[in-house]
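Our example copied in:
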Amino acid sequence: MSYELHNFIVIIPAYNEAERIASTIAGIRKFCNADIIVVSDGSTDNTVNEASEAGATVVELPFNLGYGAALQTGYKYALTKDYEFAVQMDADGQHDPSAIQSLIEPVLKDEVDITIGSRFLRRGNYKAPFIRRIGMFFFAFIASIFTGKRVTDPTSGFQALNSKVMKFYASDAYPVDYPDADVIIMLHRRGIKFSEVPAAMKRSVGKVSMHSGLKPFYYTFKMLLSILVTLLRGRGEGRV
């Protein structure tokens, strides 16, 4: 069943997702009648045309700036168009669009400012590679300590949020390199209310993970450094 929301946009960062972007957009349309923006992060394949033909608004970045920068571009666009609510999803079909309604409802009811779809709140079929799974649990533990709330999935890119959070995501304080556990801590320190919502997800097939090979070690170092910088800053700095 599809439902309709006003002032609501779905933001999809995409890099070379020509094979999957159209089906991802069609899946979203099946469950909600929302505006959709695809931010092509310097894609060299047919992502732009596929997304446009599927009915999405497309913003093209001139070259590959990374996941966080593409997301931030989408939020800046949403704010210029006066959207009040947004959902961010991956382009590869990993996120189940049938979960959008349960994700956005707590935000619409003003219970929280942002919800994060968690693969681990309910028993599911999602199986992450071993090294990635260790990293997820490690940073979930750190985020839980520094927010005082249970965090189970700090790397989830499936989120619903209001304009208050959008303004933070569009600001210079947003860490565009790896916006994961550090962002959750930043949100908490700015007085932004968050919660996790169960959300089934699939592993992305046929793609090289950003956390594969030696990159997990680089990612861990960068994330720990970002968290340290966040904690050293004044509490509530850049409060929105």
Remarks:
- The CA atoms of residues 76 and 170 lie 5 Å apart.
- The mean pLDDT is 89.
